[in-house]
Inverse folding.
């Protein structure tokens, strides 16, 4: 398997919607995540510019193919606006190549550039700390459902604004 760190990242365009659905369908065992992305796209939690794709560079063998996707949508920590990172997906044949990390980093950078301050993620505790996520419970952040404590993480995008405490409220399509 070839790896490279020169992924091109950019915000989703309308033409990318079918490829993003295909990435999520291929990356997960069920269509739940692909359906979630479609539902979030139609929800008020959607923020233009925070659905980010990763593509191979032209001429590197990937011919600009979209291979990864990371999505940030509006959530709240208590009453404080925040973002939720979910889902993050990469085509199976491109996993462990840096495509997912490139998409996540680009999404976080775009959010920070928009003035967003806080991001939450419910995910693999060995993967997300590389982006600065830490255990949410250490900041008094929790969920209304039971999840492994180490899987619920949060990040501040602006060190001048520490994470608020409270219960995370996700957008309705999450069903939480």
């Amino acid at each position: 398997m070839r790896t490279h760190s020169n992924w091109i990242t950019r915000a989703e365009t309308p033409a990318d919607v079918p490829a993003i659905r295909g990435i999520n369908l291929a990356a997960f065992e069920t269509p739940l995540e692909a359906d979630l992305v479609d539902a979030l796209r139609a929800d008020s939690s959607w923020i233009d510019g925070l659905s980010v794709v990763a593509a191979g560079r032209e001429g590197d063998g990937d011919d600009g193919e979209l291979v990864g996707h990371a999505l940030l949508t509006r959530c709240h920590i208590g009453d404080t606006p925040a973002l939720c990172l979910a889902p993050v997906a990469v085509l199976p044949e491109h996993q462990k190549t840096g495509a997912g990390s490139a998409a996540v980093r680009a999404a976080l950078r775009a959010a920070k550039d928009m003035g967003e301050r806080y991001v939450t993620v419910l995910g693999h505790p060995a993967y997300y700390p590389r982006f600065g996520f830490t255990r949410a419970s250490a900041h008094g952040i929790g969920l209304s459902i039971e999840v492994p404590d180490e899987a619920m993480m949060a990040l501040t995008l602006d060190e001048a604004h520490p994470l608020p405490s409270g219960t995370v409220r996700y957008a309705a399509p999450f069903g939480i």
Notes: Strands lie at 8-11, 51-55, 66-77, 80-90, 118-122, 134-135, 141-142, 152-156, 166-169.
